Amino acid sequence: MSPSSRRAGGPSTWRAPEDLRRTLYLLAIALGMVVVLFLNLLAYRAGGVNLYVQVVLPVTMIPALVSLGWLLRGGPLDVPERLMFFTVNVQVFAQALLEEVQRTEPAGGTDLLYWSVVVNVMLGYLIFPNRVAAGYSAALFVFSAGVPWVGVALRDGAVSPDLPRLQLTVGIVLLFVHALSWYRGQFESQRSEVRVMEQLAHTDLLTNLPNRRGMYPAVEALIGSGGAAMLLDLDYFKRVNDEFGHQVGDEVLAWAARVLEAQLPPGGRVGRWGGEEFLMTLPGLDGPGAAARAEAVCAAFRTQSVAGVGVVTISAGLTLARPGDTLPTLVARADEYLYAAKHAGRDGWRGRVERTAALPAFPDV
Fold first, then answer.
1. C-beta separation of 268 from 280 below 8 A
2. Which of 47, 58, 233, 259 is least enclosed, having the fewest CB within 10 Å?
3. What CA–CA distance (Å, rounded) separates 139 from 141?
């Protein structure tokens, strides 16, 4: 498991909502097909011709079948979303035109038609950006509201007093839908900006690791659950800056961050503590496990090299979390062991761990 997937929660976390939407779309399309079949059966038994039920709805089942196959094959959801959205709108357009063609009473429209317009507009705001959805909303309202008036003008017919009231009501509802969608967009934009600012405040831009502030929650969690902490420092880093320049020094820091991330155990975190120092949390590890991890980290630096620079080793101070520890006491103890590792010749680690046959324990300092 990569560090990035640990921070993000893993691919399965992100796929769950998509799988739910896919299932809902499959059920909705299947239910729609059953409804169309049922309506056609009723129309057949009633006799006569219902163009909307017997022609329009069956024709619009073709894109429904295409969407069904697409979903079953595991294709991206945006394709069937848009296809079925426009299919439903074709149904609304056809319903409006057929109602006007077949009308024998004063033009008044039906509540079902206009509230279908409202529902489709709301779906449009969920699928498309606000500007696109607003244009669609205006076009659909003008069309559905204009068809009866065109029919009245062509036929010189009568108008039901309910028609202006119904159209005005629907127009006001659509304006409210647009306003709510706009406010939602503003809220999401501000929330996104806050998240970005929080991330920047807790991230070291050079290494893309958590900075000192970003590591505080990981250290507090370690103290509460148990494990080990390791404070690390690149050996002779000032010499790298002096000989190769600060730009190369920055590249070495970024390289070190990648090496440390590759050595993280499950649930572990590593961050830049300051300068050339890094802090690594090792939750759930006992003394031998933490010692083995510290040895592996030092070996990873010892056996790799930086292009144009050579081998850059690292020293580490390792300590287990103790009852009553706080963030300052834990880090201070790790810093003491780091100083001991530097004093012992660098390229290694120091700390108090349980003695094992393979790994010697170092005394407290």
1. yes
2. 47
3. 6
Sign of the C-alpha dihedral, residues 214, 216, 222, 227? Answer: positive
At the topology level, CATH places domain 204-351 in Alpha-Beta Plaits (3.30.70)
| Three-state DSSP class for residue 234 | strand
- Domain boundary assignment for the chain: 12-199, 204-351
Which amino acid does the sequence have at 125? Y
Task: Residue count of the chain, please give it.
Answer: 365
Amino acid at 143: F
Q: What is the pLDDT of residues 234-275, one digit of tens each?
A: 999 999 999 999 999 999 999 999 999 999 999 999 999 999
Residue bearing tokens 């979303």: 81
> What's the pTM?
0.54
Among 61, 97, 95, 77, residue whose Cα is nearest residue 20: 77
Structure tokens at 364: 């407290």
- 210-222 residue pLDDT tens: 999 999 999 999 9
- Separation between Cα atoms, residue 136 and residue 139, nearest integer Å: 5
At what angle are helices 162-201 and 130-155 packed, to 10 degrees?
170
Q: 230 near 317, Cβ under 8 Å?
A: yes
> What DSSP string describes 263-322?
TPPTT-EEEEEETTEEEEEEET--HHHHHHHHHHHHHHHHT--BTTTB---EEEEEEE--
Amino acid at residue number 49: V
Work out the number of other CB atoms within 10 angstroms of the CB of residue 34.
10
